Amino acid sequence: TLSVSFHTFSPISSNRFEMGIFSLPDVCLWEIMARVTLQDRLRLRLVCRAFEKLVAGTNAGRFETGSIKRWTTKIRRGRRGSVDGDSGVIVRLDDLEFKLSEDRLCLLLQLRHRLFTGISFECFEMKMSHAPFRDVRIKVRNTGRVSSSYTLSSMSKNERVCRIYNSQQLKRHRYCLGRTRALIMKR
Amino acid sequence: RIYPLMRVTLTTSDGASVTVSRQLTKHSGFIEKAITDMAVDDNAVPLSAVAVDVDDATLKLVIEWLTEHRDDALPYPEKTDEERRADDIPAWDQAFVQKWDTKEDQQQTLYAVITAADKLDIKGLLDMTCKTLANKINGKTVEEMREILQLECDFTEEELAEIRKENAWCEN
């Protein structure tokens, strides 16, 4: 028989009623925060200062699909056709969809560091060569895993992404848009 | 060397002792490391200086979970740090955690088991309890979250208004 002793430094039995979520080890907090939804992250920011900090300092986890696409309304001008009206982007995260105007998009880009340190997708699509993203620094990091399906779509409009993408031989890549990450897979 | 019939006596921080088979403790990376790091001979070898705070009540819950999961495959499947699924808790585990709901300090029990699973390096139990806590939070209002997590709001009204303003892009 082996004997393992759990020595008493601060016995849980005497401190149990003082335990709180922030008594948990960091690794547990990261595990939990990777499993709450984005809407829950927004609400958790309002719970207390410690949670506001935790939300900003943890990864939002992995989503199956994500996309950013541009939208524009057309204004008819008599018989001569139409001109572009309001515009913005549609951001989709799995089954969540946000239609954002230009100014809201800029707000989103500014605020994302308060919502998570990173966010990952199995499949990510960006149909735009839109100004706010044109100068975003993009990193490619090979995940070492091979996956099977994704169409690059009009991602090629972003020349820098396209150049990095085409220079890689493996099928699956991780892109970082600032601190926002995306996984993109070649068919 | 592995001794499948070996029994391990666990002594908790509050002085209680429980003897369990190696078949259960093999799921604890911490205990396994403590055992294998020593020059184990054929017979009993005392282990010492293992600094983990686990009380009797928590250890009983951990052993109950280990007993149910004694035949689980090892090593525990590797997952990415970005895995976010929380809806795949096995039925037995759900019932196991729901039993705590009858206790006055259910949230404290959950925290204690999460801490024990982390310290003892029992990946399956840690994974399940973290998912359970995430599920408790998911979909709740801010007030409900504070109540579940037993936290007080330390923001001023102005600060809350500012955060709500920042959140507005998503809530609509």
UniProtKB/TrEMBL annotation, chain A:
A Pfam family in this protein? F-box
**Could you tell me which PROSITE patterns the record lists for this protein?**
FBOX
Q: Which residues form the F-box domain?
A: 18-55
Under the heading InterPro entries, the entry gives: F-box-like_dom_sf, F-box_dom
Which superkingdom heads the taxonomic lineage of this protein's source? Eukaryota
Q: What is this protein called?
A: F-box domain-containing protein
Source organism per entry reads: Pristionchus entomophagus
Q: What is the lineage of its organism?
A: Eukaryota, Metazoa, Ecdysozoa, Nematoda, Chromadorea
TrEMBL record, chain B:
Keyword Magnesium set for record: no
Q: Which GO terms describe its biological process?
A: ubiquitin-dependent protein catabolic process
- Keywords, alphabetical: Ubl conjugation pathway
Please name the SUPFAM superfamilies in this protein's record.
POZ domain (SSF54695), Skp1 dimerisation domain-like (SSF81382)
Q: Does the keyword Iron apply?
A: no
Q: Where is the signal peptide?
A: none
Residues covered by the SKP1 component dimerisation domain: 123-170
**Domain SKP1 component POZ as annotated: residue spans:** 8-71
Similarity field: Belongs to the SKP1 family.
Name by which UniProt lists this protein: Skp1-related protein
